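Fig. S4 source data, part A: sequence.
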Amino acid sequence: MSTLNPAEYLDALLTLPKLYGGSVSRDGKWAAWIWMGVGEAIDVYAAPTDGSASPIQLTQTSQNTYFISWLPSSDGVIVAQDNHGDERLRLFRVDLTQPNVLIPLTEESPNYYIRGGQLHPNGEWLIYAANANFQTGEEIEPTWIYRHDLQTGERKPITQPAKGAYYFPVLNSTGTHILYNRKDVHPAGYQLWLTDIEGNNDREIFSAGDDKKVYGSWLPDGKRLLIRAETETHFRVGVWSLENESIRWLIDDPNRYIESVHAPFGSDQIVISEVKEARLQSSLLDLTTGIETQLTLTHGNLQPIAPSASGEWVGKYYSAQQITDLVRFSPRDLNIQTFKSLTGVSTKTRIMSSDLAIAEDFRWQSVDGLQIQGWLYRTPHPAKGTIVYVHGGPTAHSEDALDDQIQFFVSQRFNVLDPNYRGSTGFSRMYTEAIKADGWGGREQEDIRAGIEALIAKGIAVEGKVGITGTSYGGYSSWHAITHFPLEIVSASAPICGMTDLVIDYETTRPDLRPYSAEMMGGTPNEMPQRYHERSPIHFVENIKGRLLIIQGLQDPNVTPENVSTVKKALDKAGIEYEMLVFDNEGHGIDRPENLRTLYTHLAAFFTQAFDGSA
């Protein structure tokens, strides 16, 4: 492991540039991304794709700032900024020639949530979605699409769906049409809709079924759509034509898990991101010839983004022992030694590959015989105990990627299991959908329990010295474990922004997230009151025998602080001891380096004390 001492190692992890996103301008000359850990907040960076200059820091503020889109002219970006993690975004324009000059496009501290943000080719209209009625000034339940005139301030509602949904409207390159999704029919469904820029001829153009999902994106010509549609067994991929409203299917294979597809500017090839057993397998599919080229690495993951102006491609390269980087590469030569970093991240950290634990593929059987996969990280030292680190979502998956919290745990002499329980993506559609058979708090939690038992059976974990933590759904799983599993299976739990009362969570979360809860639980709290009650950890706090540390961001609009205030009353009434760690300037998850230092050191001390029986 690391040659750095513990204090130096923690400093290096906290200041490690953690890259998210990654987008290439239409002209292929620039790449943009966000870095967390470099400054006091998340910021947006850009670099020329030819490697001719060092990265430019486009934003530098005390608040988290996120990349949203490129300007059609490729000479600037739209970014969004919230207030201490409250997700009430304000949109800004930043020009490449004037970094750190944020030109406001929408108002400060809005009473609504914005989704997306694209500048029209005429330079005068901004397209986004918001759960707001700007005529009355009220926040509303549905998410409407607006055409915001930046000169006059007029915000014209282009579409007005009946129900809330989490989607990002996408404007085509010619500025004539807007693509978006609706969930008006069924909470599990996601139908594809299209409207013109005036809001005329708003219509559904593709549905795979009331309870099926369809995703779409524009091809560069602005006349065709790339569609990924759900079937009973898999996702299929096709091209839909605006001219004749017909679709041509490109991939329709039940043995493939196509997680995403996109069509970058500057190429006739589309990028296919397939996940096999939680491992990324990327490919390029030529729309003219139909030839698909697999991009296979001997080590690590490569996610192609778009070709650069020179013809080489820009992609994201990462693994548990490889700091996430944007690189320039040739699809004809995938030797990682030839990859050229655009970010220069290796010069910005003292962390080396040898300082990081490898992600081992670990398998076990659950209670019903279903095979479960996870990533096992082993400490090279005598282990103090084992920590189960549960990913959020639950519709997501953990992969072979660097996670600073996991690496810190390993450096503190803990083994770590990162399970991909049923409901996770990256295996099959049936595996992902399996969580809905029971709803949250069902057999996916038994998958986690079975993983702990498998570790104990193999001598990797020891009874009474297993803890659990995670954020969002990982926090919910942590609450479930400490209220349902025996002490020898889980002796300590540290839920981060986790749901405690699923009814309270449904009522207080963002409006566009409520359909997701209804989808996962088989209905709303009014429709499924018994299930919501049975699956809420708050009703089982009297079962807690182990140690409990509750962690919450007080600006969280997703899993709101009401989850904590409600469960505190139940814990106090039952006489259950617990610790609290709250952050005034955090939302759904803990992001700021100074807060992460507090969190990580507190977690390490908490699990150490729990495992050795200290007070």
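Fig. S4 source data, part B ends here. The chain has a mean pLDDT of 96.
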